[in-house]
Amino acid sequence: MALLDDVKLFYMQPALRVFHDEALRLLAFSSEEVTAQTGEVLFRKGDKASGAYLIRHGQLSLVTTDTTETQELFSGDLVDESALLAEVRYRATGIARAPTNLIFIPRLAVQRVLQEFPDLVDTWEDDIVRRLHDVKATLEKVMKILPKPEQKVGQSDGH
After folding, report:
1. Which domains, ranges and CATH numbers included, belong to the chain?
2. Where are the alpha helices (DSSP H) in the chain?
3. 36-82 per-position pLDDT tens digit
4. Residue 28: exposed, middle, or buried by beta-carbon count in 10 A (0-12, 13-18, 19+)?
């Protein structure tokens, strides 16, 4: 039953939504359960990320600079989707704020799934491109409503 619950949780992730049930089952089977107690550090800013964490239950804070900048993540949140695709470094330190149960999805497991189901490669790539396009469009809208930065004295605007 836990495997089926993980498959459902995986399917709820935009990054994994295009994977069919059989691929998600293989990914869930290849993933690792991680538990963290309150205050436990799961990873540190700058560490290499060999996969992504999916929070089953609990709370995780991503702390970017000396505990002053944080982002709170909860059940169902995916930490560092980009680590599913490529070797990256964590951009923040992950600290459990409550007893937390997570699923660690190794990048190697994703690669294995894509080898087993090569039809997913193009589908996943198309989905990633579509989602990046959506992010770009949103950022462009935000940039239009933000005030323009003040030009520095003596700086030419090109006219």
Report:
1. 2-142 (2.60.120.10)
2. 2-11, 21-30, 107-116, 119-145
3. 999 999 999 999 999 999 999 999 999 987 656 789 999 999 999 99
4. buried
